[in-house]
Amino acid sequence: MTADTVIQEKELISLVPHKGKMFLLSRVRAYNTEERTLTAEYDITPDCMFYDRKIDGIPSWVCFEFMAQSISALSGIAGRARGEKPKLGFILSVSNMSICAPVLKAGTTAVIQISEDCAVDMVFTFACAVFLDDKQIAAAKLTVMDTTDVSLIENR
Fold first, then answer.
1. Neighbours of 144 (CB within 10 A)
2. How confident is the model at residue 156 (pLDDT cuts 50, 70, 90)?
3. Separation CA 126–CA 16 (nearest Å)
4. If exposure means fewest CB atoms within 10 Å of the residue's CB, which of 25, 82, 108, 129 is most exposed?
5. For residues 40-64, b (16+ Cβ closer than 10 Å) or e, as one string?
6. pLDDT-based confidence at 153, cuts 50/70/90?
């Protein structure tokens, strides 16, 4: 299924397990649940829990969390189409992480793009990138596991 309309924050927050200040997506601009791709945005403001007034922005390592939450949003959108509640996602690995900007300044919008590369059972690998002003500032491969069964990690 492909998005016909933008999913705004108010609706989006019901699709992911992240809540409150830890919720770091402003909107989903586009998605395709069959191709397993998604483009999201986050507006950088002083309200962000990672905002540092000394640098008037957020540290760029937060791009990792944008990527993870975008994957969670795609999972939530696909799950909603099947009548499922949002699943928990566990990051199993991060590889090839590169960041070329130290700060994401307040007043800018980060654009996050994710695309699934591989899926085996409940484990998925995504190619992820973050852009500011159409310039890629971060990229990584994230391997995650979707589950509704928290006991998979509780007894470890």
1. 22
2. very low
3. 17
4. 82
5. bbbebeeebeebeeeeebbebebbb
6. very low
**What are the C-alpha distances in Å from 82 to residues 33, 76, 79, 85?**
11, 10, 5, 9
Question: Using CA atoms, how far apart are residues 11 and 20, in angstroms rounded to an integer?
Answer: 14
Strand order in the sheet with 27-32: 7-8, 27-32, 37-43, 109-120, 123-132, 135-147, 88-99
Which residue type, as a one-letter code, is found at position 1? M
Domain boundaries, the chain: 7-154
The string of DSSP letters for 43-58 reads E--TTSTT-BTTTTEE
Q: What's the CATH class of domain 7-154?
A: alpha beta
Q: Where are the beta strands (DSSP E) in the chain?
A: 7-8, 27-32, 37-43, 57-59, 88-99, 103-105, 109-120, 123-132, 135-147
